Structure prediction request, 187 residues.
Amino acid sequence: FCTNPIWVLKTRLMLQTHVSTNPTHYKGTWDAFRKIWRQEGIKSFYAGLVPSLLGLFHVAIHFPVYERLKMTFKCYGDSDLRSERTLHLGRLILASCCSKMVASLITYPHEILRTRMQLKSSLPHTVQKRLFPLIKNTYQREGFRAFYSGFATNLFRTVPASAITLVSFEYVRDHITSLNDNILSPP
Prediction:
């Protein structure tokens, strides 16, 4: 809720154009903020909020799938003893990448819907600013594939970031756990 205005500004700045019947031009973030505030009101900063909230399901899918894949791929090896466990970098990367792709595949349409709700468009307000009419309109005019436009590019951006984040977390957690074990049970 607090960050939705930032997403609206980002989307508008990224997709501003000078080549349409309604060209937009923002000189920067503050200029975009002022123009949107004056011309469209505060409500515009919350365009796409419902699809953004649906994006929370991404995390609810990503992390449980990741935890399951860590066990399936035996990312910590076969030993039950903490002192004998070793992290397997390749397996951790694979678990992270696969879980991110699964979560993205299931939840990506919310990003399309959020972006479309945040843009100025020629669609009637009753279609563009309401989730179910927008879904129906998008499907009727462009088909199912429209909900996945830019999906591959999104994966190229998010999968490596996920792998770096989750693998780093695993290594830091393992290191802290080892330090903790050494402090609590000295040799």
